[in-house]
Design a protein that fits this description.
There is one protein chain. It contains 12 helices and 10 strands. The protein is an alpha+beta fold and 304 residues long. Helix 9 runs antiparallel to helix 10. The longest helix is centred in the middle third of the chain and has 26 residues, at 162-187. The radius of gyration is 24 Å and the shape is elongated. Mean pLDDT is 85; it is low at 64-75.
């Protein structure tokens, strides 16, 4: 008997449908599952799971808190969550979490279409599940309509145009999701500004403690671990609110700290560079000039 600590790997849409106790998919590379049709007995609780295809979960009416992986998120008017192939997730501990719909499609389904090359641009496939997309009532109606169109197309007999139509509908779903995520960053501005404040404090502490001497430059990976956010989500959030990504924001903070040290201390350029976390002072000077159009020494001279 398989232990729950092992990863259960699902390699095909057909295997998934069998394990859910559902009929074979109408198309071997894409399926739309209505969890009302899935028996609770088919769902093992707390299983570590990996699938070889994309998944878009849509909960249109569920209200409450749902566990995904090690985190939770709340739905108001419904929401969307996204998984890319080979992401590790945990099946929910309660059957009430299995509500709504899930669209599954294999990378091979979109391989020969522009979407196959562009899908990595939809960053939300790299978000943590706790960073799901919350939908307003109007947005929920739009997404419901797209899911209905996909379901209708899947029920039609497969012809030479079926795949073209379905790929177009998937792309429409992803474009709407992009738009709604951008709206979410804006409407949750107060919450997101708090994230920026936390980021500022982390960087302030890093520089004031001279952590760079021991740990090197502050990294996006470590910052995200401290904030408990995925790297892609934080970068997209920063772009939405500040116009720059996380790495650029960190670099700007380093330059501002460097300006402070250049104008208020007698530390050499090399000493400042090492305190900030640079291995080589030349790398610091290059970044400083790229950001300010003058060298660190020229900046210091402007104060004398």
């Amino acid at each position: 008997m398989q232990q729950k600590k092992d990863i259960h790997h699902i390699t095909s849409i057909s295997q998934l449908m069998r394990e859910l106790g559902l009929p074979a998919p109408l198309h071997p590379l894409i399926a739309l599952v209505n969890y009302n049709d899935v028996s609770a007995e088919m769902l093992e609780k707390g299983q570590k799971l990996s699938i070889d295809f994309y998944k878009i979960s849509f909960k249109p009416d569920f209200k409450g808190q749902t566990k995904y992986g090690q985190g939770y998120y709340d739905f108001e008017e419904g929401g969307l969550a996204f998984l890319k192939p080979k992401q590790i997730v945990y099946t929910p501990d309660d059957k009430e979490s299995y509500v709504g719909f899930a669209l599954y499609f294999h990378p091979d389904f979109i391989l020969n279409y522009p979407l196959g090359k562009q899908i990595d641009q939809f960053g939300f496939f790299s978000y943590n599940v706790s960073e799901a997309l919350f939908l307003s009532a109007k947005e929920k109606d739009i997404i419901t309509s797209v899911f209905h169109s996909i379901a209708t197309e899947l029920m039609n007999s497969i012809d030479n145009f079926s795949q073209d139509v379905l790929v177009t509908q998937i792309e429409l779903l992803l474009n709407y999701s992009n738009r709604f995520y951008n709206r979410q960053f804006i409407t949750r501005k107060a919450l997101n500004n708090n994230v920026i404040n936390q980021l500022d404090q982390l960087l302030k502490n890093y520089f004031n403690d001279k952590s760079g001497l021991k740990n090197g430059l502050p990294s996006v990976q470590n910052i995200c671990a401290e904030l408990q956010l995925s790297q892609r989500y934080l970068s997209d959030l920063m772009k939405s609110l500040t116009g720059i990504n996380t790495q650029q924001y960190i670099q700007n903070a380093m330059i501002e700290k460097a300006k402070e040290k250049l104008s208020t201390t007698e530390l050499s350029v090399s000493e400042i560079a090492y305190e900030l976390g640079f291995e080589h002072s030349q790398s610091f000077s290059k970044l400083f000039k790229a950001k300010t159009d003058i060298s660190p020494l020229e900046f210091r001279k402007s104060f004398n």
